[in-house]
């Protein structure tokens, strides 16, 4: 499958393009970015042309991998889907449910495969854990903490405008939801509270009565970073395992998953429809944090 990369930042360079350039069943055809100079540099790194016109790149590929801010990603994903291109997307899919639903509708109408790269879901140890424990069932509670500290000198995401504006809820929140929803089910309603250093604490009620709590920030004190998920159920307690793959390897697995979905017509569990579900939860959480009310998803 011929891929184009839309985006020229750190993630596009060190993860997406790197994985596509070495994938046995994919070919990196070209790149496009909002900065022509950055696109030229990225294309030169991987020996592919940089396109000034995104439509020109779309004409040469079967699929796109998008590494752009979510409010930029969504309309470009719609454009690519309408051009008949399969979509390998980043989280969050969009910054509002209506934009996310437009991506889903465009992909459905065009009959193209979609996949949102929730990184954990393409790490073998994590995906096997979720699959096996979903089969066990009986999970009634979970607690997750994602305290990152990205706004430090030298961090490749320190200058990310959309992350500074929308914070951990929208950046790491999708990752958190991607490893809670498979075991506890869809979210019915939620409440939220804010804490120091842009921390957001969520209390989620799931279908069937399960409940979960998530604590999220991108601006933790440098010595107070933390990542962990615990689950509690009728058969005991457990924790999310450590990764057994790199980010590049995980993205390569996602490429393979998109290829399979395109070939079989069978949607992946992390398709755009799931991505839109996550956006609806995040939008409800945004409302809850500002109104101090319980919000229905």
Commentary on this structure:
This protein is of the alpha/beta class and 297 residues long. It has 2 domains: 2-120 and 247-269, Rossmann fold, CATH 3.40.50; 123-243 and 279-296, Dihydrodipicolinate Reductase, domain 2, CATH 3.30.360. It contains 10 helices and 13 strands. It has helices at 10-22, 36-46, 54-58, 70-82, 97-110, 124-136, 161-171, 173-184, 247-264, 272-291; strands at residues 2-6, 27-32, 50-51, 63-66, 86-90, 114-117, 139-147, 187-195, 199-206, 211-217, 226-233, 236-239, 295-296. It has a 7-stranded mixed sheet. Strand 1 (2-6), helix 1 and strand 2 (27-32) form a beta-alpha-beta unit. The mean pLDDT is 97.
User: Topology as H/E string?
Assistant: EHEHEHEHEHEHEHHEEEEEHHE
Query: Which CATH class of the largest domain is shown?
Result: Alpha Beta
Number of structurally distinct domains: 2
What is the number of beta strands? 13
The assigned CATH architecture of the largest domain is 3-Layer(aba) Sandwich
What is the general shape? globular
Distance between the termini: 37 Å
Strand order of the largest sheet: 12-11-7-10-9-8-13
Percentage of residues in strands: 15-25%
CATH topology of the largest domain: Rossmann fold
Low-confidence stretches: none
Query: How does the major sheet shape up?
Result: 7 strands, mixed
Instruction: Figure out the total of helices.
Output: 10
- Overall average pLDDT: 97
State the CATH superfamily name of the largest domain: NAD(P)-binding Rossmann-like Domain
Give me the Rg, rounded: 19 Å
Subunit arrangement of the protein: single chain
Helical content, roughly? 40-55%
Structural class call reads alpha/beta
